[in-house]
């Protein structure tokens, strides 16, 4: 059993691991890119994505907690081999995302200290690696993502208030938009709870021993906390970006997020962007590597025994690929969109599991959560298909 104080720390750590896993370079790029395109209407896309995020995480975390198994093992129980397919999707998507995370960390140190992004990426990767070579890696990771999460929100709030956004218009368009973008919604959901991010917090709780029906209420609260942290950061960044573009100022397409901070608060804003970008990227490196590798640890005793070193290898591979080829801003948006396409598959698997006795025993999954989940699977499938046919090709014109 996990003691109360340690339990609270792990629950908060799991929430922030999920949140900071989603708040990476792609998050910053996606938010500023779509704000420039949709202006105040982007608030509606954020609002819808948050509702979907809550439905996804409450379903997934509860099913993982009750079954006391990781997602890949649940999938294999439904259909032999399905877990391997799910793991393949997660590891491939996670690796693609992590290349962007490493690049973002390098860019952050480039802004702060003026060193090359490649050197910054290597330094950042070594810091992330350091977390996993320490004996108490789990506790260090929980504390690291918690502190970094608060720093990111505080600094972004400062820039938002400095920029003075049109709050009234943002509130109105959040609920009554002039324009709705399916690509924006799919990308936001994919970048927040798509791919590996869906399972980051749930797998962390399993590793920490917080599982079983007795923990359902606390697991649910932890899931909502994680989404809330992400939502606050998304809205604050959106308002900061809106303040800039509403003045008719153009963002640099090669680095739109940096433009927002620089135009809003001058050179100080640019340095703040560097800190936020670095914190967002490094915490995402940690969360992405941890969760991606958690999808293969149960397939081999050797991997499970050397879990932390496999995570280290994952980070090093991501770093080598970035230093070799880099990662442009549009690809960060693309990966978020593709992760959104994976979501209906992973959530569908979990919903089926919720009603299989051999997986959850006599546990009765709430009907409203099941219906909520089914609606999300259908809606994300339709919006994902629409984005694949219409939105993504437009992105690369």
UniProtKB/TrEMBL annotation:
The keyword Glycoprotein does not apply. The chain crosses the membrane at residues 38-61, 82-99, 111-132, 144-161, 181-202, 223-250, 270-295, 307-325, 331-354, 366-389. It is a multi-pass membrane protein. It is found in: Membrane. It comes from the Bacteria. Its main location: membrane. Keywords: Membrane, Transmembrane, Transmembrane helix. This is Divalent metal cation transporter.
């Amino acid at each position: 059993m996990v003691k109360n104080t340690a339990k609270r720390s792990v629950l908060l750590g799991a929430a922030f691991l999920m949140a900071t896993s989603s708040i990476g370079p792609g998050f910053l790029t996606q938010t500023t890119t779509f704000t420039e395109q949709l202006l105040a209407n982007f608030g509606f896309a954020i609002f819808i994505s948050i509702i979907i995020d809550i439905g996804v995480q409450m379903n997934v975390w509860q099913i993982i907690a009750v079954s006391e198994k990781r997602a890949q093992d649940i999938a294999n129980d439904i259909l032999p081999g399905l877990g391997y397919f799910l793991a393949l999707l997660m590891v491939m998507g996670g690796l693609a995302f992590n290349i962007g995370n490493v690049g973002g960390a390098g860019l952050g140190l480039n802004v702060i200290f003026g060193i090359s992004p490649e050197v910054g990426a290597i330094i950042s990767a070594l810091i992330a690696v350091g977390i996993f070579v320490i004996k108490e890696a789990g506790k260090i990771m929980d504390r690291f993502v918690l502190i970094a999460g608060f720093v990111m929100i505080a600094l972004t709030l400062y820039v938002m208030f400095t920029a003075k956004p049109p709050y009234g218009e943002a509130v109105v368009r959040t609920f009554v938009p002039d324009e709705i973008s399916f690509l924006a919604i799919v990308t936001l959901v994919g970048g927040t709870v798509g791919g590996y991010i869906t399972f980051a917090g749930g797998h962390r709780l399993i590793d920490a021993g917080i599982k079983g029906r007795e923990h359902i209420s606390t697991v649910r609260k932890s899931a909502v906390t994680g989404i809330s942290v992400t939502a606050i950061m998304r809205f604050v960044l959106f308002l900061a970006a809106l303040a800039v573009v509403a003045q008719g100022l153009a963002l640099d397409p090669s680095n739109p997020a940096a433009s927002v901070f620089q135009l809003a608060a001058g050179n100080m804003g640019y340095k703040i962007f560097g800190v936020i970008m670095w914190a967002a990227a490094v915490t995402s490196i940690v969360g992405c590597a941890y969760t991606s590798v958690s999808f293969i640890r149960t397939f081999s005793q050797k991997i499970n025994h050397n879990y932390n070193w496999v995570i280290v290898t994952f980070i090093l591979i991501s770093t080598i690929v970035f230093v070799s080829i880099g990662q442009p801003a549009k690809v960060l948006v693309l990966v978020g969109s593709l992760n959104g396409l994976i979501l209906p598959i992973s959530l569908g698997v979990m919903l089926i599991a919720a009603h299989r006795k051999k997986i959850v025993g006599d546990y009765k999954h709430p009907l409203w959560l099941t219906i909520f989940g089914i609606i999300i699977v259908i809606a994300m499938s339709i919006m994902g298909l629409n984005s694949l046919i219409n939105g993504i090709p437009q992105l690369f014109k």
